[in-house]
Amino acid sequence: MAPHSKPAFDAISMAECAYDLHSSKVEWLQRMHGILAPAIEHDRGVFLAELEVTGTPHEDWAARPKAWVGQASREYFARVCASLRPELVAPLLVYAPSVDTLRGVVKQKMVDPSVIEEADQATGAADIFTLMAWTPGQTRGLAAVAPSSKPCTIPLATIKRWKLVMSHFAAGYRLRCALEAEPNLAEAPPDGAVLDPRGKVLHASGDATKRSALAALSTAARAIDRARGRARKRAEALEGWTPLVTGRWSLVDRFDRDGRRFVVAHVNADHQLDPRALSPRERRVASRLVRGDSQKVIAYELGVSPSTVGNHVANIGRKLGTSSQWETTSLLTTLLQHPDKQLSVEGVELRVWTKPSPRPPVKLTESEAEVYQALLAGASNTQIARKRGTSPRTVAHQVGAIFSKLGVSSRQELLAARERRGEA
After folding, report:
1. How far apart are CA 186 and CA 176, in angstroms?
2. Are residues 55 and 88 located together in one domain of the fold?
3. How far apart are CA 366 and CA 381, in angstroms?
4. Pairing with 313, which of 136, 184, 209, 407 sits 20 to 30 Å away (CA)?
């Protein structure tokens, strides 16, 4: 099975579709399906849907279609999701590589081999070519699949090409979700910028006003304009159009009433909450290491240089106490596969997936609530201060305020009070 034929594979049109924020979600999915399906050779259809994962890890985890293209897609994903055991939901829908086949995921030992038999019973497919536009660690994303009556053989070059495209759809989906939650940010994003297609900055605010940010955004806008020009049909055209700029901004078209085109830089960094010992940038790199991406692919997706990713990988290894990238990836993979397994770094519990944090019984300030969670995790005042970028004295005052509001006098009493309330 060849997943695309060269004449039908228009990577730039796919990237343009990814950042279409003006149509409704259903219209957007329909346009996406219209572009993706002709580029995939299939014998049992191409199905596309937004999926959502609910529940707690390895207990009652489940997946369901949230939005879809046509009744056939809804029925297909409903059958597949209903047939999955809870322990197979995460690696298939959240941790799987952005592009692969079902048999390929099994071969990599990411999921139990029995999933092939279950998929066959649910859909009658011997294999499934999957395109996952999913931000690591998130509970919602996009899945496009092409079931096959025989095992799929996908060339490595084709997988790499599709991965670039799926990185854009994941970034576009993440930005769409953010703007759906706060639609007023679409026209005037805080910490963003407005540029013309040639990279001239017309307006900037917040962090985007920094000289380094302005230079990076201007360079990226020019690169996108070149990719959409004469180089559009070239196989390497998409390589200059990265989903993010310096790991933070996505560039999106906006048209004025007179038809003029502007480029808006929206803050669109993905937020990984764990592992807690790593910085936000290191967490983004770590989650993609587990996904099996090379440093070059990670650099493309985050819009940074490979050397920057290499430095992050080295820092991650130092913090986790590993001596090689293989050991680092192995440890992180263990955390992903066993989210309830407790590991710690400097006394702070290390998890990739966590159950919902218990809420304190009284109203705390935002800072106090964060310190409260750290206290429950067993962190010392010094560790909390280091993590929050404050002084141990400040943390000590916050701890005192928390104790006073909760009516306890020690950490032991705090934990005992939590247990009495039945918090996990």
Report:
1. 9
2. yes
3. 17
4. 209
Contact 372, 358 (CB under 8 A): no
The CB-side HSE value for 326 (13 A sphere, CA atoms) comes to 0
Structure tokens at 2: 């060849």
- Same structural domain, 188 and 334: no
- Residue-by-residue DSSP string for 272-293: ---STTS-HHHHHHHHHHHTT-
Confidence class for position 129, pLDDT limits 50, 70, 90 = very high
Residues 213 and 293 in one domain: no
One domain, residues 204 and 261: yes
Q: What is the phi/psi pair of residue 107, to 5°?
A: -60, -35
- Domain termination residue (choose one: 246, 267, 288): 267
C-alpha 91/C-alpha 88 separation (Å) is 6
- Tokens for 277? 């010992």
Q: Is the pLDDT of residue 307 over 90?
A: yes
Cα–Cα nearest to 136, from 292, 250, 21: 292
d(CA 210, CA 218): 12
Q: Is residue 358 part of a domain?
A: no
Decide: residue 255, CB within 10 A, 0-12 exposed, 13-18 middle, 19+ buried: exposed
Write the pLDDT tens digit of every residue in 325-359. 877 877 777 665 555 555 544 444 444 444 434 45
Per the structure block, which two tokens stand in for 14?
Answer: 């796919």
The whole-angstrom separation of Cα 376 and Cα 365 is 16
Structure tokens of 290? Answer: 């587990």
Domain that holds residue 334: 280-350
Phi, then psi, of 98 in degrees rounded to 5: -70, -25
Question: Which residue type occupies 315?
Answer: N
Q: Are residues 134 and 13 in the same domain?
A: yes
Task: State the pLDDT at residue 349.
Answer: 47
pLDDT at 2: 45
